[in-house]
Amino acid sequence: MSTVQDASSVSSLSSAGTTTATSTAQETEDRFLALLVAQMQNQDPLNPLDNAEVTSQMAQLSTVQGIEDMNATLDALAASMGVNQVTQAANLIGSAVLVPGDSISPAELENVMGFELSRPADQVTVDIFDAGGGAVRSLDLGPREDGVNLLAWDGLTGSGEAAPDGAYTFRINATQGGEQVDSTALHLGLVNSVSQNSQGVQINLADNESVTYADIRQIF
């Protein structure tokens, strides 16, 4: 895995890949021409090569060459896009992002949670649980619109006492007309670094969690 500091090495790999593809294409063309020349030199004078056949073979070589050149260009473009994405993602370092996840804490900045609804809901509740799975508090949010919704936990339990520091989770229950509405729990994460691997650009959060660009719902 390469980090954002290694963007130049990704670029050099891109150049190396393009050079290799070009070299392979040139070798293929050289072999074809050598075989064609040998075939012409050793042809039967009474049964010479047909011009149409030679033209067809040259056209096939041109097609293969064009495909290889196009593949090399696409590979180089993909590598270049990867470098640009890493550079752009580096601007997120130090920012808070809202991503899928159900972890929460009563600590400041860690008490923000959210959820994404596939459609409007006329009743939404959020249940908070401690590390052992015990119910800590249930929040009645009433109706909510579709899309991303945000709220903050005041750190209190159902009895009104301050919840001890620690790791908690939350669960969303949303309904519309008594029918379940699809929802995705979202939590806040601090971007520590950016890296790139075979899956593409990875945004690494403070709690050793990695997400992609597509996972980010909001940036703070």
Write up this protein.
With 220 residues, the protein is an alpha+beta fold. It folds into two domains: 2-92; 96-219, Sandwich (Immunoglobulin-like). The chain has helices spanning 7-41, 51-89, and strands at 2-3, 96-100, 103-104, 112-117, 121-129, 135-144, 147-152, 168-176, 179-180, 183-197, 200-205, 210-211, 218-219. β11 (200-205) and β12 form a beta hairpin. The protein starts with a strand and ends with a strand.
List keywords for this structure.
2 domains; Immunoglobulin-like; five-stranded antiparallel β-sheet; alpha+beta; elongated
Structure at a glance:
The protein is α+β, with helices and mostly antiparallel strands and 220 residues long. It has helices at residues 7-41, 51-89, and strands spanning 2-3, 96-100, 103-104, 112-117, 121-129, 135-144, 147-152, 168-176, 179-180, 183-197, 200-205, 210-211, 218-219. Residues 1-18 have low confidence and may be disordered.
Distance between the termini: 27 Å
CATH architecture of the largest domain: Sandwich
Order of helices and strands: EHHEEEEEEEEEEEE
Radius of gyration: 30 Å
- Total number of domains: 2
Number of helices: 2
The percent range for strand residues is 25-35%
The stretches of 5 or more residues where confidence is low (pLDDT under 50) are: 1-18
Annotation, overall tally of beta strands:
13
- The chain-level mean pLDDT equals 80
Q: In which range does the helix fraction lie? A: 25-40%
Globally, the shape reads elongated
CATH class of the largest domain reads Mainly Beta
Q: Please name the CATH topology of the largest domain.
A: Immunoglobulin-like
- Main sheet properties: 8 strands, antiparallel
The SS-based structural class is: alpha+beta
